[in-house]
Specification:
The chain is α/β, with parallel strands linked by helices and 260 residues long. Strands 6-7-8-3-9-10 form a six-stranded mixed sheet, with helices on both faces. Strands 2-1-4-5 form a four-stranded antiparallel sheet, with helices on one face. It is built from seven helices and ten strands. α3 packs across α4. The termini are far apart. The protein has a domain of 172 residues: P-loop containing nucleotide triphosphate hydrolases (Rossmann fold, 3-Layer(aba) Sandwich). Keywords: ATP-binding, Nucleotide-binding, Transport. This is NitT/TauT family transport system ATP-binding protein. GO terms for molecular function: ATP binding; ATP hydrolysis activity. InterPro entries: AAA+_ATPase (IPR003593), ABC_transporter-like_ATP-bd (IPR003439), ABC_transporter-like_CS (IPR017871), ABC_transporter_ATP-bind (IPR050166), P-loop_NTPase (IPR027417).
Length: 260
């Protein structure tokens, strides 16, 4: 049985159809990169995976059961904008999930439990290359370091699924390369199943074991929201050629103009 199954999955907001007829199976430890024109529903799909949005129709299954209806420790997420707490240092940011889990109202624990959370946070920060910045606050960190901190936050609960919403879009090319190496290493070491949204098709081909293209194959210029995007390409990485790459790029440009 596949780890993740999409069965005729739809997402609509009133008369606006965002996603339609999504059908796919994803095995554990796959790295799925998702590309598509702006506004085609990529982030909406990630929200469905996280559990903060519900499907309008169809099913989204995890291990054969409906995916949990709210975020839990099975899924971690990293956004493009650094989702870190400015008033906490690096260790405090990574400890926060454990503190909130243990004490929902105070958000703070003490004694042996606190020492264990701190030790785990330090180990995770070292894992993402921030062992030298344990007491630094977010405003003291570069963009790449803040994103490493966000990854540490997402992975501290050891999730099975890592969701990445354009995590490197705001980074310089050199830093992006370093982040690519980090994510690929963590994916392999922690046996993660990854879904990553990107606007960079080349990045999608490079990082993923599988690339999905979300695109509208039905367009009405007079009613651009009448139809939703679906998975129009599902490519195993390594079998793409330049013709396929150019075809996808051209189609996404056409869709972006049509719905822009």
């Amino acid at each position: 049985m596949a780890m993740i199954e999409l069965k005729n999955l739809w997402k609509e907001y009133g008369n606006d159809v965002v996603l339609e007829r999504l059908n796919a199976k994803v095995e554990a430890r796959e790295f799925v990169t998702v590309v598509g024109a702006s506004g085609c529903g990529k982030t909406t799909f990630l929200k469905l995976m996280l559990g903060i949005e519900d499907p309008t129709r169809g099913e989204l299954l995890l291990d054969g059961e409906p995916i949990p209806g709210e975020p839990d420790e099975t899924r971690g997420i990293v956004f493009q904008r650094y989702s870190v707490m400015p008033h906490l240092d690096a260790v405090g940011n990574v400890m926060l999930a454990g503190e909130l889990e243990a004490s929902r109202w105070l958000g703070r624990v003490f004694g042996n439990r606190r020492r264990k959370l701190r030790d785990d946070a330090i180990a995770m920060l070292e894992e993402v290359g921030l062992g030298h910045a344990l007491d630094k606050y977010p405003h003291e960190l570069s963009g790449g370091m803040q994103q490493r901190l966000a990854i540490a936050q997402a992975l501290i609960k050891r999730p099975r699924i890592l969701l990445l919403d354009e995590p490197f879009g705001a980074l310089d090319p050199g830093i992006r390369k370093d982040m690519h190496e980090l994510v690929l290493r963590l994916w392999k070491e922690q046996n993660l199943t990854v879904f990553m949204i990107t606007h960079d098709i080349e990045e999608g081909f490079f990082l993923g074991t599988r690339l999905w293209v979300l695109d509208k194959d039905r367009l009405d210029p007079q009613a651009p929201q009448a139809y939703g995007a679906r998975i129009t390409f599902d490519l195993p990485v390594g079998r793409e050629d330049q013709k396929t790459y150019e075809s996808i790029s051209s189609r996404l440009d056409t869709t972006a103009r049509a719905i822009g």
